[in-house]
């Protein structure tokens, strides 16, 4: 008797992606460049986050033809984004056979209060988090993989660093607690109690946690690995650079060998200018994608 | 003590390290070719085979891995590792390490929504092994020197040729260490043979 969509199968899929780079692509050609460069998966999108930012308006699930085109172009897993709380977009992506769904704050939320009950789906989900409470709530809803929210489409790593450090530091804090302190901690951060007990014992999250939202250079990717990320999502950084193939390959290698600084120096030579980037203080509160859900 | 390496370019490395240690051997993450001299056996973990192959080539691992096997040291490939070991891959002109005489099909059970868990009978290992298949390949055909260790719905999902073994599923994702213990025993045996 075979069981599909089990927790182990959904979380296991993300375990296989560890140490790898997942790249945003908008068509088959970009997907092939990403696969050639050694991406472990691609995220099929209509527009990369920096273009979503520039275009404004409502950002939705990509046109199914784009996702389908990408799925037909590569043999590595294909992920796609659904709006937060948009049950039907997620079900459509599942029916199309995408390998992973990102319930993503990069798109305009469909529900400002509730996230999807992801445990109901056969397809696994990845969600963003800024702190342990948010991470634990998403896992509680059934997310099989996490990523930092960072601030997508900015090419500025500062928010991803903040979120990764925050999650790690709260896990260390929890691990050092006595068990009778956990309930109050759970109340304060709004996290499921039983899950925190498990995280306290293991000293880590029960799912992988990738870095996302602002990775613009090979050194940025290596920095996130150094801070404890299991892998890296790169959105606008690659296909907004001058030589995407070379750039993508450099990010992959820097992620694998993130403590080989001499190598990272070599990889970073002659890549051309990275995306210009946005300083956080110049972003209006309404333009901060990370604050679209909690 | 027997030392087993896990090729740590990409994929589920930590899980293999845990299960090797639970099986009583020493585990090492292998990131550089020179580390291969320090180990008695090697695991090629699950992950993305295309990605791993690119990284294998970038860091000169290709011939180093083949030589490691040819000198008689055991190699165990899971999922992507199985694909790396195969002598032929359906729909591709070229295979990778070509250490096991078999033809394999990638993502043969389908995309992620078709990934599953099922109980298997595995020769020499267990009659009731809970196997986790994730976008898994299977073996289409094997050469005369290959022993089939397990099938699922008539598809070959575990095989052995001398000191090379492979599984389409992920024994490292459960707490059942019997398959890794089986590999550790093969490594210990080969260590004795190679020393004598």
Overview of this protein structure:
The complex is a heterodimer of chains A (about 290) and B (about 200). Chain A contains 13 helices and 9 strands. Chain A is of the alpha/beta class. In chain A, helix 12 runs antiparallel to helix 13 (about 260-270). The radius of gyration of chain A is 18 Å and the shape is globular. Chain A starts with a strand and ends in a 26-residue tail after the last helix. Chain B has about 200 residues and is α/β, with parallel strands linked by helices. Chain B is built from 5 helices and 12 strands. In chain B, the strands form 3 sheets. Chain B has a 7-stranded mixed beta sheet. The relative contact order of chain B is 0.18. The interface of A and B includes residues 4, 36, 38, 98 and 99 of A.
Beta content of chain A comes to 5-15%
Oligomer: heterodimer
Q: Please give the largest β-sheet of chain A.
A: 8 strands, parallel
How many individual β-strands of chain A?
A: 9
Radius of gyration of chain B: 15 Å
Taking the sheet with the most strands of chain B, its summary is: 7 strands, mixed
Mean pLDDT of chain B: 96
Number of strands of chain B: 12
Number of continuous helical runs of chain B: 5
Question: What is the overall pLDDT average of chain A?
Answer: 94
Low-confidence stretches of chain A: none
């Amino acid at each position: 008797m075979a069981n599909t969509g089990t927790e182990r199968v959904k979380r296991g899929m993300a375990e296989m992606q560890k140490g790898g780079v997942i790249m945003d692509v908008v068509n088959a050609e970009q997907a092939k460049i990403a696969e050639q460069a050694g991406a472990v998966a691609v995220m099929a999108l209509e527009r990369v986050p920096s273009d979503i930012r520039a275009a404004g308006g409502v950002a939705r699930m990509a046109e199914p033809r784009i996702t389908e085109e990408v799925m037909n172009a590569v043999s590595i897993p294909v992920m796609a984004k659904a709006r937060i709380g948009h049950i039907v977009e997620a079900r459509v992506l599942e029916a199309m056979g995408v390998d992973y769904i990102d319930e993503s704050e990069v798109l305009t939320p469909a529900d400002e209060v509730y996230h999807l009950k992801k445990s109901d789906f056969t397809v696994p989900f990845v969600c963003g988090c800024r702190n342990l409470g948010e991470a634990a709530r998403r896992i509680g809803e059934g997310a099989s993989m996490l990523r930092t929210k960072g601030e997508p489409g900015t090419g500025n790593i500062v928010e991803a660093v903040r979120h990764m450090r925050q999650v790690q530091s709260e896990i260390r804090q929890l691990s050092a607690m006595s068990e009778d302190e956990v309930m109050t901690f759970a109340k304060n951060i709004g996290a499921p109690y039983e899950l925190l007990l498990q995280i306290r014992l293991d000293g880590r999250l029960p799912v992988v946690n990738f870095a996302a939202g602002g990775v613009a250079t090979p050194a940025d990717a290596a920095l996130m690995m150094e801070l404890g990320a299991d892998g890296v999502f790169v959105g606008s950084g690659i296909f907004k650079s001058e030589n995407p193939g070379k750039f993508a390959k450099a990010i992959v290698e820097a992620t694998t060998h993130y403590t080989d600084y001499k190598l990272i120096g070599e990889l970073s030579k002659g890549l051309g200018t990275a995306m210009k980037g946005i300083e956080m203080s110049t972003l209006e509160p309404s333009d901060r994608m990370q604050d679209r859900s909690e | 003590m027997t030392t087993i390496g896990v090729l740590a370019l990409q994929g589920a490395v930590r899980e293999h390290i845990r299960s090797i240690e639970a099986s009583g051997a020493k585990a090492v993450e292998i990131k550089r070719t020179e580390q291969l001299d320090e180990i008695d056996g090697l695991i090629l973990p699950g992950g993305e085979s295309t990605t791993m192959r690119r990284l294998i080539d970038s860091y000169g691992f290709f011939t180093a891995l083949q030589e490691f096997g040819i000198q008689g040291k055991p190699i165990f490939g899971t999922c992507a590792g199985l694909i790396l070991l195969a002598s032929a891959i359906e729909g591709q002109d070229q295979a990778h390490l070509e250490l096991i005489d078999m033809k394999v099909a990638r993502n043969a059970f389908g995309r992620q929504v078709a990934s599953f868990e099922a109980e298997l009978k595995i020769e020499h290992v267990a009659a009731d092994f809970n196997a986790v298949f994730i976008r898994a390949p299977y073996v289409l055909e094997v050469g005369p020197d290959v022993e089939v260790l397990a099938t699922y719905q008539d598809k070959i999902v575990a095989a052995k040729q001398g000191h090379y073994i492979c599984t389409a599923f992920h024994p490292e994702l459960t707490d059942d260490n019997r398959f890794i213990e089986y590999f550790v025993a093969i490594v210990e045996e080969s260590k004795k043979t190679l020393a004598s």
